[in-house]
Amino acid sequence: MGSTGNGSDAELENHFSGGGFIHEQQRAGQWPDSFLVNGTWNKFIVITPQFITPYWQRAPSSEEVNSVLDYMVQHYKIDTTRIYLLGNSSGGGPVWDYISYNSRYANRIAAAIPFCGTAFPTEEKANIIKYANVPVWGMHNQFDPGVPVKFTMDWVEWINSNPAPNPLAKLYTPPDQGHGVWYMPLTRQFTENGMNIYQWLLTHQRTATKVFAGNDVQITPPTSTAQLNGAGTGPNGTTSFYNWTKLSGPAGGNLSNTSSLNPTVSSLVPGTYTYRLTITDNSGASNSDNVVVHVNPITVRIQAENWAAMSGVQAVGTSLCARLHP
After folding, report:
1. Regarding beta strands 217-219 and 286-295, do their DSSP bridges make them parallel or antiparallel, or are they unpaired?
2. Are 9-202 and 210-298 the same fold in CATH?
3. Whole-number Cα distances in Å, 306 to 162, 242, 310, 321, 322
4. Positive/negative CA dihedral, 278, 210, 86, 63
5. Is residue 158 within 8 Å of 124, Cβ to Cβ?
6. CATH class of the 210-298 domain in this structure
7. Of 29, 156, 250, 287, whose CB has the highest number of CB atoms within 10 Å?
8. Which fold has domain 9-202?
C-alpha cells in the first residue's frame, strides 16, 4: 500500500514507478516466479490497492483495508492462513493501524512489514499487536526527513515490552537520511540471516481452523430424526461461527439449528444425505468437513395365513419380509 490515484489506467502507472515496487520489478522481469523456504517453493498473489484520497487528507480506514482483504479471499485462491501486509510511508501507516485496530483484524494477518509508517503509536494499540502475536518487522531510516524514526521505534518497543510476544517484533533502522527505506528490502538486496523479506514472511503462518463434522450416521425407520455432532475451533481457541448446510439427499432432512455444533435433522426418508459443517474463526478464515446420514430402506413384516387349516388340514403360517424402496 502507498500509491495514490483514481484507478484509471494512467494513474495505475504509479504502481510501476518510484523504484523498489513489486509491480515495477514484475514489469522489468526481475520478480522471481517463486521463493524457496524450508524446502518448499511458494508463490505470492500480490494485490496493491490505490488510495483515491491523498493520505494527508484522509487515511484509508482499517475497515476499508479489511474490505480489500475480503475481496481478495472472495476472488482469488488465497491461503487465508498466509495473508501478509506491507506498506511504505503513507501505506505503512494503514498497516500499523490495521493490525492494531482490534484482535479480529490482527489475527487475520500472518506477518506485517510497515516501512516508515506514518501512524502515531500508542501503547494501547501496540498491545493489540502483542497479544495477537503478529510477527512484525518495522523498517525506518534513522534520519528520515519526512516521518520520525521514533514512530517505528516506539511501536516495536511497546510490542516487545513485558510480557513479550512470540515472536518478538523486529526493527531495521539503517543510518540513512532519505525516506525510501523500502527500496533495498523490496528489491531483495537486503537480507538477514540469509533470508530476504519475502522469505521471512513465508516462515510465518496462522493456524488453520479445525473442523470435524462427526462420524457418519445410520438410522432405520420408523426413526426419522438424527443428531449431528460437530466439533472444531478457530486458531488458538478464538471465537468461531458455525454453519450447517445440506449438500444432497432426498426431500426432508431439515436442520433444526444451522448455527449450532449439534443440530437435529428431521423428516428423514430412506436414502443418503450429505451435510457440511463450516467453521469460521474471528479473523474470517474458514474450513469445512462433511458428514453422511444414511437412512435404511423401510422393512415391513407381513403375516401370511394358510386358510387350508379351516378345512381340517393343519398348515403352518409363514412370515414374509418385504423391502419397500422409495
Report:
1. parallel
2. no
3. 90, 58, 9, 17, 18
4. positive
5. no
6. mainly beta
7. 156
8. Rossmann fold (3.40.50)
Tens digit of each residue's pLDDT (9 = 90 or more) over 159-204:
999 999 999 999 999 999 999 898 889 888 889 999 999 999 999 9
Burial of 204 (0-12, 13-18, 19+ CB in 10 A): middle
Does the pLDDT of residue 322 top 70, yes or no?
no
395365513: which residue's cell? 305
Determine the 3-state secondary structure of 177 from DSSP.
coil
CA dist 131 → 100, 104, 167 (Å): 10, 11, 11
Is-contact 101 78, C-beta < 8 A?
Answer: no
- Cα separation, 164 vs 204, in Å, equals 18
Number of Cβ atoms within 10 Å of the Cβ of 266: 13
pLDDT tens string 198-253: 999 999 998 777 889 999 999 999 999 999 999 887 765 565 689 999 999 999 99
Nearest-10 Cα torsion for 317, 318, 323, 324: -20
Burial class (CB in 10 A: 0-12, 13-18, 19+), 312: exposed
Which segments of the chain are extended strands (E)?
35-37, 40-42, 84-88, 111-115, 137-139, 170-172, 210-212, 217-219, 226-227, 231-233, 240-248, 254-255, 264-266, 271-281, 286-295, 298-304, 318-324
The DSSP element (H or E) to which 155 belongs, if any, is helix 149-159
Neighbouring C-beta atoms of residue 211, cutoff 10 Å? 22
Estimate to the nearest angstrom the gap between the alpha carbon of 268 and the chain centroid: 34
Q: Which three cell numbers stand for residue 51?
A: 488510495
Please say whether the beta carbons of 86 and 112 come within 8 A: yes
In the structure grid, which three cell numbers stand for residue 93, read together? 501507516
